Amino acid sequence: PTHITKVCCIGAGYVGGPTCAVIADRCPHIKVTIVDISVERIRLWNEGPLPIYEPGLEEVVGRCRGRNLFFTTDVTRAIEEAELIFVSVNTPTKTSGLGAGMAADLKYIEAATRMIVDASTSNKIIVEKSTVPCRTAQSILTILENNCRPNVCFQVLSNPEFLAEGTAIADLQAPDRILIGGMNSPAGKDAQEALVKIYSNWVPRKRIITTNLWSSELSKLAANAMLAQRISSVNALSALCEATGADIDEVATAVGWDTRIGPNFLKAGVGFGGSCFHKDILNLVYLCESLNLPEVAHYWKQVVDLNEYQKTRFVRKIISNLFHTVSNKRIAILGFAFKKNTGDTRETPALTVVDCLLAEDAQLSIYDPVVSHEQMLEDISSLRRPNGTSNITLNTDVYEACKEADALVVCTEWDQFKTLDYKRIYQSMRKPAFIFDGRLILDPIELRQIGFSVEIIGKSQPITSAWK
Ligand code: NAI
């Protein structure tokens, strides 16, 4: 197979950056150049602070940058010299036109494809890293074939990324599996083998799966749909737990011991967020609808619907416990990122909570250890509430955020929230002092002893009995 010595990655985001930094780290013999159209993003990758927060990323970039890892906006040159090109551009949900709110917007994929074909004077292997609808490789190939210079050939591979934000570096260094889809021709197999060889530098061969293109593209959507489905299933059960007195953590543990089910990814909470689950499931639903499979579409749509239900259910719980009014009450929002160990706020459930509470005229103080205040303001402004962000205070000190609050609402499972001085916080709050734990990380017994009124998703109040 082709021996790859130069790799280019288009898109220096949450996927392109960490993925290709790890490739550079593990393959010192390969020159890796990451390009982006965003001048600011490239500047930050080069000069710091890194544009994304991910544990372990700084060390990896620090080891390779300037050695065999480069960040540049000179897209043309990087494409021209590369033998293999990852396409890691964003594929957000379309906001208007056909399939608005459901289908993936492929304009960035197409633009990247056209940039590639324009700049290519030699054969290239194009690797879809972005999550795309099934059969996108065909569109890419058609654009390439119709615009390429004479004697320039392309192969298209699908190599979806399964990393999870917050643990991206660990996931990339020891992936559960690497999936590489390719065409079933000699040249296709050759291209597949060239990419297998890159990953083989650190991934055991048995964990590298090769399939046809469409299986690979669909597997990414399927994996995200099934992961999100687990969360929606456990969240649906959490509502049942609250109504019956069962405890969702106990139920999830008991269920997860079944080896067919397994213990991971069964944590109830305020709802899933992140840039991928929501958009990829809707993308899958749209695909099913366009292929005239309404029952299948309906099945997967429920996963998203249940997630919306879970978020608003949590807010309803907050409001009803606060005596059915939060007007002018001060509520501290603990955590704004969509999960711990990331600064990413895309589709964060915290924003839904903020939105609903602002609609009820609450005063919010928000604290997150990583998300920048600019990012929070941008997200909250996008809600277009009549009062804008005037009912919001952003805090850099968690104790300050909790001061004089009527309630604390845990929206992100940051470890530091488990070990706060809750006695001190309780003393600084208005009484009765409430805690709503949307991530099931706090110890209700300890908090109730301090004096808090504690509400946790999937758990009802303890059984009361005269016999202690
Ligand atoms: P992102 O928005 O962080 O990064 C995409 C980057 O591509 C941006 O910096 C943008 O400026 C750049 N870009 C867009 N068009 C370009 C062009 N023509 N030339 C050069 N640069 C261009 O997005 P993220 O999160 O990295 O996601 C990328 C893809 O990976 C998406 O399809 C996503 O669904 C998928 N994915 C994301 C995961 C995640 O955890 N964020 C995990 C697995 C897959």
Automatic annotation (TrEMBL):
This chain belongs to the protein called: UDP-glucose 6-dehydrogenase
Write down the superkingdom of origin. Eukaryota
| Sample GO molecular function, one term | UDP-glucose 6-dehydrogenase activity
Q: In which pathway does it act?
A: Nucleotide-sugar biosynthesis; UDP-alpha-D-glucuronate biosynthesis; UDP-alpha-D-glucuronate from UDP-alpha-D-glucose: step 1/1
> Principal place where this protein is found?
membrane
Q: Give the family per the record.
A: Belongs to the UDP-glucose/GDP-mannose dehydrogenase family.
Keyword Oxidoreductase assigned to the entry: answer is yes
- Active site residues per record: C276 (nucleophile)
Q: Which amino acid positions bind NAD(+), per UniProt?
A: 11-16, 36, 41, 89-93, 130-131, 165, 276-279, 346
Choose any GO biological process term that the UniProt entry carries and state it. Answer: UDP-glucuronate biosynthetic process
Q: Where is the UDP-glucose/GDP-mannose dehydrogenase C-terminal domain?
A: 332-444
- What is the membrane topology here? Multi-pass membrane protein
Q: Which UniProt keywords apply?
A: Membrane, NAD, Oxidoreductase, Signal, Transmembrane, Transmembrane helix
**What range of the parent protein does this fragment cover?**
260 to 727 of 727
Give the EC number(s) listed in the UniProt record. 1.1.1.22
Does the keyword Transmembrane feature in the UniProt annotation? yes
Give the lineage.
Eukaryota, Fungi, Fungi incertae sedis, Cryptomycota, Cryptomycota incertae sedis
Catalysed transformations (reactions): UDP-alpha-D-glucose + 2 NAD(+) + H2O = UDP-alpha-D-glucuronate + 2 NADH + 3 H(+)
Q: Where in the cell is it found?
A: Membrane
Residues at which substrate binds: 161-165, 220-224, 260, 267-273, 338-339, 439
A single GO cellular-component term from the record reads: nucleus
